[in-house]
Structures are given as structure tokens and as C-alpha cells.
Specification:
This protein is an alpha/beta fold and 346 residues long. The protein has a single domain, classed as Rossmann fold (3-Layer(aba) Sandwich), CATH 3.40.50.720. The protein is 41% helix and 16% strand. It contains 13 helices and 13 strands. Helix 2 runs parallel beside helix 3, helix 2 crosses helix 9 and helix 4 packs parallel to helix 6. It starts with a helix and ends with a helix. It binds nicotinamide-adenine-dinucleotide. The site of nicotinamide-adenine-dinucleotide has 28 residues, from helix 2, helix 6, strand 5 and strand 7. Nicotinamide-adenine-dinucleotide binds next to helix 2, helix 6, strand 5 and strand 7.
């Protein structure tokens, strides 16, 4: 039995109270779905900056639990009182709420600062003051900035290249100096993908945008020459890392730990597009094949290569990515929810 399976089994027999911020977003709604499926008590906080009520509704309907214990608070992490309200009595906090887009952090740096630095600080302090067992927060691979090709480990010197990355790094530093006894863990997500990732915004992840375009018979555009690489990680593995980090049984007094969360495998944008087209045409043979991609100039703040070294998360958390890119695309495009699967294994 893997460490994750062990923990899922513990959770399915014992309810804890979890706060998920950004609960109406892509990753947050998957955390909600999995936790509700494990019969946990969940308090979601979101102000719908980019998330939607339909994400939450879908999470509830797919969770596989007829009596989901979810309290949703429409509120803003920039409001300290809202943060305190949701943290009261909580065991674990999974802080995901953020302005997530790199280009938008250039366009609206004050919004980035207020959500991703002040809002982060509010949640950290509210969780600490409420004596929660563990505070886990979404950091990002963006903190590494441009690095030479090859796997990046957590002690690589950082080079944030955008207001978004500066904010994510600031959160990591705050967690190191302000947790004061509360276990806090930052997860540097690589490129997450999966159902409910919003394809309708120019700020969305490339997989959701390209999948939507391919399904509509349109030709996607590649920014750059197509050789840029990314480490694409399926959302279930992001959920796994959050639950493992929250439930770590060590408290070594070393707060502010950070872990890479990816697959450790690089994929070029060109390979990605072919994989998406293959998966779409396998499941929807009637959709017309699209022409070769259009190539556009690289965007400000885009990095050339990104690939996680996940040794530390493997060793310390017991994290093991469970889905390859092909499997993840198949699940996302071919349909089929993960609902109930985790719990039914135990
Ligand atoms: N998706 C990725 O590939 C990726 C990669 C690295 C890091 N991350 C981080 O993971 C977290 C979740 O990202 P996501 O992809 O699910 O994005 P998302 O936009 O789907 O979710 C973010 C959620 O936060 C909410 N939110 C934003 N500002 C808020 C505020 N001030 N108060 C309350 N709620 C607020 C939004 O409404 C949204 O529901 C973010 O912290 C993001 O920076 C994501």
C-alpha cells in the first residue's frame, strides 16, 4: 500500500475539518470533490474572481457521497475577518485562492499584490491563530524563472520573472518566518491540467485552450518555436500532494518547507499538441483533423523549459504521480470522473 492509499484509508474512517480557499476554482474544486468523497467536512472560501459556482456544483455532484458536508463562504482572502471565520475550528487549511495568471499579474500588479501577498498573509495568520494542524499552500514553479534545461530541484537558486512569481516566493518566505509552530508547506506546482480548467480565458492553461480549440476543429497557436518544454501534472496528483502534505506525521519544527509537484517528465509544446489531437480524434473521430499549428512570438514572462525534480516530495511526503500525460489526457478528454474511485479502493 502506498503512503497515499494509507492516508486515504485513514481519512475515510475519520472526519477532519478542512478549509479550501479558491474552492470554486479548478484545483480547489478537485480538492473539495476528493475530500467530500472521503466524507470529510469541508469549508470552501472563494470570491469568484476566476472560479465559478458550477465548478463547486460539479465537485459536489461527482464526489460520490450522498451527504456531502460542505459549507461554502463567498468571501475574499483580502478580508481578514473572512479568513478568520473559515479557519475557526479547522484542522487543515489548503490555501489555493490566488490571481493565477502570469500575464494578468503584469497587467494588474496591484490586484496580484493584494490577492497573492496580502491575501496570502491573511490566510497564513488566520490559520496560525486558529491553531490549525497544518497549512498547505499553492506556490508555483514560476518561482524558478528561466533555468537551464533539465530537472530543477528545490534548492536551485530562484529567479522570479513576473509579479505573480514574486508574490508566490513572498508567500514561501512569509510561511517560513511567520508560521510560529504551525506546520506550513508550500507546493510548487508545475503545469496542472484536468477537467474544470477554464478554457474560455486567454489566461488559461494551454491544455484546456488547445483541447477546446481542437474539439471545435480550430488550429491552435503555439507561442515560440514549439520546443519549449513543460512538466504537465494531472490535477489528481496535485490533490494527492496536498493531502499528503497536510497529513505528514512529522513535525520537525522546520516550517516553510517547499516541494516540487510535477511528474518529473518534460513534454515539448509540439508533442503536447500532437497528444491532444490524438486523444481528441480517438474519442471524437467525427471532429475534422486540424491543420498544422500557427507559430506566434513568445510572450513576456514565458520560460523556455520547466521540469521538476520530484525526489524530495517522493522521499518526504511519499508523493508518487499516478497518471502519465497520455492517461491524464485520456481521462480529461474521454470523460469519466475520478469520483468515488479513490474511496472505493479502500
Ligand atoms: N493551474 C496551474 O497550473 C497552477 C500552477 C502553479 C500554481 N498554481 C496555483 O494553484 C492555485 C489554484 O490555481 P487554479 O489553477 O485552480 O486557478 P483558478 O483560477 O481556477 O482558481 C483560483 C481560485 O481562487 C479564487 N480567488 C482568487 N482571488 C481570490 C480572493 N481574493 N479571495 C477569494 N478567492 C479568490 C478564484 O475565484 C478561483 O476560484 C493558485 O494559487 C495558483 O497560483 C496553479
Amino acid at each position: 500500500m502506498s503512503r497515499y492509499e494509507e492516508i486515504l484509508s485513514i481519512l475515510s474512517n475519520r472526519p477532519f475539518r478542512w478549509v479550501v480557499t479558491g474552492a470554486a476554482g479548478f484545483i480547489g474544486s478537485h480538492l473539495v470533490e476528493t475530500l467530500l468523497g472521503l466524507k470529510q467536512q469541508v469549508i470552501g472560501l472563494d470570491c469568484f474572481l476566476s472560479g465559478t459556482r458550477s465548478n463547486l456544483d460539479e465537485a459536489v455532484s461527482l464526489c460520490g457521497n450522498g451527504k456531502p458536508d460542505l459549507r461554502f463562504v463567498k468571501g475574499d482572502i483580502r478580508d481578514m475577518e473572512a479568513c478568520r471565520e473559515v479557519c475557526e475550528g479547522a484542522d487543515f487549511v489548503l490555501h489555493q485562492a490566488a490571481l493565477v495568471s502570469v500575464p494578468r499579474s503584469f497587467d494588474e500588479p496591484h490586484l496580484n499584490n493584494s490577492c497573492n501577498i496580502t491575501g496570502f498573509l491573511n490566510m497564513l495568520l488566520a490559520a496560525r491563530d486558529a491553531n490549525v494542524r497544518s497549512f498547505v499552500f499553492a506556490s508555483s514553479a514560476a518561482v524558478y524563472g528561466a533555468q537551464p534545461q533539465g530537472p530543477i530541484c528545490e534548492n536551485t537558486p530562484l529567479a522570479p520573472m513576473s509579479p505573480y512569481a514574486v508574490a508566490k516566493r513572498t508567500g514561501e518566505l512569509y510561511s517560513r518566518v511567520l508560521s510560529c509552530g504551525m506546520r506550513s508547506t508550500g507546493l510548487r506546482y508545475m503545469n496542472a491540467y484536468g477537467p474544470r480548467q477554464d478554457p474560455s480565458s486567454p489566461y488559461s492553461g494551454v491544455i484546456s485552450i488547445w483541447t477546446k480549440q481542437t474539439m471545435e476543429g480550430k488550429t491552435p497557436a503555439i507561442f515560440g518555436d514549439g520546443n519549449n518544454t513543460r512538466d504537465f501534472v494531472y490535477v489528481d496528483d496535485i490533490v494527492q500532494a496536498n493531502i499528503l502534505a497536510a497529513m505528514q506525521d512529522t513535525n520537525d519544527g522546520c516550517n516553510g518547507n517547499v516541494f516540487n509537484v510535477g511528474t518529473g517528465k518534460p513534454t515539448s509544446l509540439e508533442e503536447l499538441l500532437s497528444s491532444i489531437q490524438r486523444a481528441v480524434h480517438e474519442y471524437f473521430p467525427d471532429i475534422p483533423q486540424t491543420a498544422n499549428p500557427r507559430y506566434m512570438p513568445e510572450r513576456t514572462g514565458d520560460i523556455r523549459h520547466s521540469q521538476a525534480d520530484i525526489t524530495l516530495a517522493r522521499k518526504t511526503l511519499g508523493y508518487e504521480p499516478r497518471l502519465s500525460l497520455a492517461e491524464g489526457l485520456e481521462r480529461m478528454i474521454g470523460g469519466g470522473s475520478k469520483a468515488g474511485k479513490e474511496t472505493s479502493k479502500n
